[in-house]
Queue: 2 jobs
Job 1
Amino acid sequence: MVIDPSLDALLPHREPICQHMNDDHAEALALLCGASGPSGKAARNAARGCARFDVEQGEMAPASGCGSNSRKPLSTPDEVRRAMVELVRATRALGQ
């Protein structure tokens, strides 16, 4: 899904969302990438758009990384939160 960045409803929220994920949910980001560093902060949320999120992994990011497309475009920070919680829960369930 390609969306004109100027029409992305999450554009004004991108930095705060990424900062929150990096500050408070580094373990979840590492889980989504399938790897974790010694500090638990090897992965960081690099970008968040209405249709995709990207995670960079490694000290010299973007050494490697991962990302995921949303099932549908997201338009609010609350929709992002719900989608990320669902994705992390599903990823954890696969590991059990």
Note: Strands lie at 43-48, 52-57, 64-69.
Job 2
Amino acid sequence: MCIPMEPVNLKALDRAGLAAFLAVMLVAGTLLIPRAMRMIVGLRRPETTAVAAIGIAFGGAFLWQVSPEANLLTAFAFGILGTLGFAVWGRDLPLAADARRIP
């Protein structure tokens, strides 16, 4: 039985609630999901890895159904954080053509 879900009203969600949501997404995105995927990839079974990746994607789709506005703000915030992190600590990788060039 499918229970229809109403999107969360973002106006009712105060700044503390949004900050808590961002904190949970940060912990899940940087600690839980990568560790779980490393553990699943360590099983060396491609089918299990594919099913887990699809499950994570559907989990993101479920979060979208709960609150599209919060997901848009979260994606924007993490996009900005990723860009700033690359600008500060990142570096470009050499291109394959440059790596094969003979001096």
Note: Residues 26-83 form one domain.
